[in-house]
Amino acid sequence: MDPENKWPVSLPKLPESLWRGTTELPSFPRLAEDHVTGVAVVGGGITGITTAYLLADAGFKVTLLEGSELLTGTTGFTTAKITAQHGLIYSDLAKRFGEDKAMAYFRSNSESLEWIVETAEKLGISCGLEREDAYVYCNPGDKKTLKRLEDEFEAYRKLGLPGEWVDHVSLPMRIGGGIKLAGQARFHPLAYLKGLLEAFLDKGGSVYEHTTISRDVENEGGLTLFTEHGQHRIKCRHAVSASHYPFYDGGEMYFARLHADRAYCLAFEPETGYEGGMYLSVGEPRRSLRAVEWEGKRLVIAAGESHKAGQSGCTIKHYENLEVFAGELLGIRRIPYRWSTQDLITVDQVPYIGKISKDKEIYVATGFAKWGMTAGTLAARMIADQIQRKSSPYTELYDPSRFKANPGIKNLLVQNANVAKELITGKMEFTLKKIDDLGLDEGGIVRHDGKRVGAYRDSEGGVHLVDRTCTHMGCECEWNGSERSWDCPCHGSRYSYDGEVIEGPATLPLAKPDL
């Protein structure tokens, strides 16, 4: 690609995920009154919908609550690999947690894979589910990564995992070595979850969209949750936080134990054939590949370019880098879709799943580290079992409070809590800031109606909201406090505080959400 070509004509002008672009989902009302239910599930992604389905199937009265619209979060923007091969993890898990826990991690994710396959078949859900072999590999000449890959394969051998060492793959590229894990899967996640949602509704479940739950919780005579601004109360016996970042912290300092990584995807039609398989490179730059069927053609999803959320500046460069990789590997006829998303990662790479504290019937599921198809399903199954007081062999491994026993870690978290909180509320974009937190003549990123939007409160107290997505190429604009403008870090477009174009290349104003 010509490095001077800043606006590649082959990239779609605005980001849209293939899953969102090919799925028509039902809409649901906003909660408009106080509500009573058995279980309140907060978050409408794979974890929330699966949890709601499982508990409704077990006879519970369940209400699913989503701050925005269902499947508009990370689940709608995944690569949708269903696998227990999560990069180079088993060698590390065996060292830090022990071989039994490492094996439990593999079993729990493998069981969740099989549960997805069996559930799709049982419910008759057509979601393009295909079995695929998964591969992690390193590039030739990368001796440091090859050593890590060899250590990982040794962990496979010790744990008895069904991995196979390979020196070649079917792709037109050389590798330094790789590990093949047979019998994994891929699917269309929204088609699958739409079917699961229909089954949940058939069992009497309730769904409310545009219903953001506040951080305030009462714990007398059962739980009471509150919608944003305390407009309505939700009485329940159990609550599940499946909302990516937990809606309720419970003193567990999740803001200090999680960080967000962003990654990028292209769905492209290759010029040469793609024989199948799901691939993940474990050196840098990290690259992921899998196939998907679309309009009678086979597309390939290329993903990668991870970075800490909010710490990249120009984001178009990440799509351009993936375009170069895809073009050099398979050639590109066209790119119908591009999208990005971010996911939370725990300090030890293992998700937090389970009861948030002994004295509250609140359960949390977060920190899936970009493996949410299996991890989100695992979380739903574990939490549904815990609410039904069923035992699980995986409770200790995924315990959200598992680091509380280590004083050194706890002290470190306490010392850095304020720094981490400031990072989250500012740079890392899954902000906790609300419109009411803005002072006069202050702008920034806030959470409104379950979404991150740009906001400015003028000197008279009036509030101006904008969708920060630049209308030129879809980058996220940043607030410029000195100029009171929204500035695009990709190609320099600038907008006034209320979204009007100040300078191009953008020609259209920013969209304006309802206040």
From TrEMBL:
InterPro entries on file: FAD-dep_OxRdtase, FAD/NAD-bd_sf, Rieske_2Fe-2S, Rieske_2Fe-2S_sf, Rieske_Fe-S_prot_C, YhfW_C
Keywords (A to Z) from UniProt: 2Fe-2S, Disulfide bond, Iron, Iron-sulfur, Metal-binding
Source organism superkingdom: Bacteria
Pfam (any one): DAO
Entry annotated with the keyword Cytoplasm: no
Domain annotation Rieske: ranges: 430-515
GO molecular function, one term: 2 iron, 2 sulfur cluster binding
GO cellular component: cytoplasm; membrane
PANTHER family noted in UniProt: RIESKE 2FE-2S IRON-SULFUR PROTEIN YHFW-RELATED, SARCOSINE DEHYDROGENASE-RELATED
Protein name stated in the entry: (2Fe-2S)-binding protein
